Amino acid sequence: KLSDRLQTVASFVKPNSRIADIGSDHAYLPVFLARNEQIQFAIAGEVAKGPHENATHEILQQDVKNLVSSRLGNGLDVVTAEDQINTISIAGMGGTLISQILERGKNKLQGVSNLILQPNVGENGVRKWLMQNNYRITAERILKEDHHIYEIIVAENKPAPTYSEKELLFGPKLLQILPNAIFQEKWLAELQRIKNAIAQMKQAQVIPKKRISKLKHKADLIKEVLDFED
Ligand code: SAM
């Protein structure tokens, strides 16, 4: 059974898509999509040999090799024009890496109308990249599984509005579903981390003023969004 996290990613894949799942590891997502008859074609891209072998094995075992192609390569290098990919998913890695993969593979994005991204951290950097590269955020989800909180960002290749600092940090679509218990839990934990970090720096008598004022600013944004005073 697919994790709730990957099932949520899958729920945003439009019928008959041609999808490249980058950093696919076991290829669970494309295999699920193929078995569900949700796609026309998928690439399971992997940069590492072990995960690539896992993907190849899973695709054979689940009998979907007519629909899912297992490819070894860095980021979007595995995508060619003949594949006619219109959707890219990248899940389960840091936001910085996701943005780097998209940036490095920009020339492969021409026909790609849909991006489904699930950064483990650093969501704001991903949103910034989307905004700067003509992808508009059309949906976002936040969910908790196995004690982790995950965000999923869905974008379409359309002119994007200028997102505010707050929208980049918290998510323009997630801000619209508040109050939300998981969102609250995530940002309360982040607030606590900021408080601890500042306290530790003060205790160690290293007081990098710039860093502290940045952290305080972030804490203020969190308090504003969670709508409380302290
Ligand atoms: N996408 C799956 C998921 O969400 O469950 C697997 C996530 S796994 C934690 C991250 C995978 O990304 C690893 O298998 C790693 O080898 C792969 N990866 C990291 N950088 C990559 C890159 N530049 N190109 C392709 N794959 C990459």
TrEMBL record:
Q: Which UniProt keywords apply?
A: Methyltransferase, Transferase
Q: Name one GO molecular function term.
A: tRNA (adenine(22)-N1)-methyltransferase activity
Top-rank taxon of the source lineage equals Bacteria
GO biological process assignments: methylation
**Membrane-spanning intervals of the chain:** none
Record carries keyword ATP-binding: no
- Which PANTHER family does this chain map to? TRNA (ADENINE(22)-N(1))-METHYLTRANSFERASE (PTHR38451:SF1)
Please state what the protein is called: tRNA-m1A22 methylase
Tell me which species this is from. Pediococcus damnosus
